[in-house]
Amino acid sequence: MKLKWIILIALFGGLILGPLISNVPGSTYILLDQTAIEFKNNFAIAIVLLSLVGLWLLWILIRYLLKTSNLTVGWFGDRNLRKARQQTIDGMIALAEGHWKTAENLLVKGAKFRDTKLINYLAAARAAQEQDDHKSRDQYLQEAAKAQPDAHIAIGLTQAQLKIRHRQYEQALATLNHLRELSPHHPYVLKLLHQLYTKLGDWERIIELLPKLHKNRVYSAEHVADIEVIAWAKLLTLIAQRDGLTAVNEQWLKLSKNVCKRPEAQLAYAEILAEQHQYDQLELHIKDSMKQQWQERLAELYGMIESQEPSRTLATAETWLKQKPNNAVLLTTLGKLSLRAQLWGKAKKYLEQSIEQQPSAEAYYYLGQAYKELGHPIQAQEVFYTGLANEVSPQKKHQVIADFSEE
């Protein structure tokens, strides 16, 4: 459209200016050393106008050439960008499919012409990690830092994740502590710290971290409560090994009711008491815990109690039959406690019921003891053999019994 208007203006201008120029009188002289060149004024004016038009056309040509050059350069640039973008896409697909070397090569190539170098190098670091190429992994992380220095949190988190997966726990911990200094409330930093402390078995650090996990909503409130109970259960065991039962009892009294009421914590404390042979304390603890919630493992530990009044201990366990009349573990516990109370017939009944529900070597062993006390040594030997067969290979139980019968 612009060219059409220019041509029209030039035509009309020529029609108007042509007659005016032709009527201009006089001459124009150009002096060159000793030579003088004479032009009619109308001719001189025409030359000047044509020169201006020529200069204008030359300017248009130069602009056109420059524009064409930029388009050519841009085409090559766009081509490189398109190629790098496709390499990045193919690299991410290869990474998702587990083709680690292919992914690494494509992602590194794609980083040369793309403005997504950070993403490319972080993904390449993951691909190198999967190949156990830790030197390349660290190099790509350094390249990512150079490409985008402000992304230290993203780079640090990737570095920590990869080192945790490679079990470089101390290095990962140093990285996460540094990130926590930079961003004390970053949820994912806190989450990785919790995961790392769990792998290290540093339950005290986890307990210290709990308020941060809750405040920054790293996990749901229910999950944080679960983490707290597990951490305390593990820590009580460590305290028992390190400082003894007195320290465990002191710590147990300091725990919140919410923790003490949880089965995991109750079981951890019960196992410590059983290991320390604190049977009176264990009996009271299990009785209180069972009032809140039935736990099979507590019923099993209750069978270990060597009480001064075994009949009373047995009577307490028998009250649990109302809840679990066919529980094999409880029936075995009742059989063991009956033996301690010298109630041989009752012990035999409970142990046979336990075996009927779920055969176990332990039940067979104590049933053999009951038969011995009842004066039936042959039956006792048969039960012992059966229990042994059940422990070694349940499928061979009947063959062992047959062999014993033949003897």
List keywords for this structure.
mainly alpha, two-stranded antiparallel ribbon, 407 residues
Structure description:
The protein is an all-alpha fold. The chain has a two-stranded antiparallel ribbon with strand order 1-2. Helix 2 packs antiparallel against helix 3, helix 3 packs antiparallel against helix 4 and helix 9 packs antiparallel against helix 10. The longest helix is centred in the N-terminal third of the chain and has 57 residues. The termini are far apart. The C terminus is likely disordered.
Please summarize what this structure is.
The chain has 407 residues and is an all-alpha fold. The chain is built from 21 helices and 2 strands. The model is unreliable at 70-77 and 396-407 (pLDDT under 50).
Mean pLDDT: 84
What structural class is derived from the secondary structure elements?
mainly alpha
Radius of gyration, in angstroms, nearest whole number: 45 Å
**Portion in helices:** over 70%
Give the low-pLDDT segments: 70-77, 396-407
Distance between the termini: 117 Å
- How many beta-strand elements? 2
Main sheet record: 2 strands, antiparallel
Shape: elongated
Strand adjacency order, main sheet: 1-2
